[in-house]
Amino acid sequence: GENVEQHPSTLSVQEGDSAVIKCTYSDSASNYFPWYKQELGKRPQLIIDIRSNVGEKKDQRIAVTLNKTAKHFSLHITETQPEDSAVYFCAATAGDNDMRFGAGTRLTVKP
Amino acid sequence: GAGVSQSPSNKVTEKGKDVELRCDPISGHTALYWYRQRLGQGLEFLIYFQGNSAPDKSGLPSDRFSAERTGESVSTLTIQRTQQEDSAVYLCASSYILGNSPLHFGNGTRLTVT
C-alpha cells in the first residue's frame, strides 16, 4: 500500500515568515494529494489539494507543489499568522484504494 | 448541508467490554473511512468502504476490531473486549468517490478504556 512520509515533525516560525512542509510518497500510481489542517481538539479540515496533472496550485497564502518524478509534494504558507498554528497532515491516494496520511507537522507561529 | 456525524462523541468503558461506534456520512458519499488518532499522534488508517464493501481489512489492529456499512450509508466500528491501548479518538470520514475527492471528517468519538 501507499506510504507517506512527512517532514519536519515540528516547525516553529516567526509571524510573517514562510513555512514549508514536505512529503514523499511511495506509490507511483498516486494521483491525488490533499493537505489537512487540524487545530487542537478539532477535526482535520481540507485546506488545499492537488491532482497529478498539475504541478502547482495556489490559494491566497497557501500553495502546494508536486513533483511526480521525485514523488514528493510540498505545502507552502506565506506571511504566516498565529492562527496558522496547528497540525498539518499531507495525504496521498491512487484513487482506487484508501487514503494514507503523513505523520503530521506541528506548526507554531510565534507572534 | 449536514456533515459527517459520529456518535457517541465520548465513550468511557471498562476494560473487557464491547463498544460500538457509529458514523453517518454525508448523503451521497460512496466512500467511507475509519481512522484512529491517539493523543498527539497522526491518523492511523483502519478501514475503508466503497459502497458497502470493505476490500482491505488489513489496517484493523486486531481481530477484536470489525466494521460494517449498510445501505451505502451508516457504518459501525465495533471493538470487542476493549483494552486500555484502544483509548483514542476514532475519526470517520466520507468522500463523494473513492480516492480522488476530499475527505470530510466527523468530530470523532473519544474512547476511554478504564
Description:
The complex is a heterodimer of chains A (111) and B (114). In chain A, the strands form two sheets. In chain A, strands 2, 4, 5, 9, 10 and 11 form a six-stranded mixed sheet that branches. In chain A, a hairpin with a 7-residue loop joins strand 9 and strand 10. Chain A has strands at 4-7, 10-14, 19-25, 32-38, 45-51, 56-59, 62-67, 72-77, 86-92, 100-101, 105-110. With 111 residues, chain A is mostly beta strands. The N and C termini of chain A lie far apart (41 Å). In chain A, 0% of the residues lie in helices and 55% in strands. With 114 residues, chain B is mostly beta strands. Helix content of chain B is 0%, strand content 46%. Chain B contains no helices and ten strands. Chain B has strands spanning 5-7, 10-13, 19-24, 31-37, 44-50, 65-69, 75-79, 88-95, 104-105, 109-113. In chain B, strands 2, 4, 5, 8, 9 and 10 form a six-stranded mixed sheet that branches. In chain B, strands 1-3-7-6 form a four-stranded antiparallel sheet, with no helix packed on it. In chain B, 35% of the residues are buried.
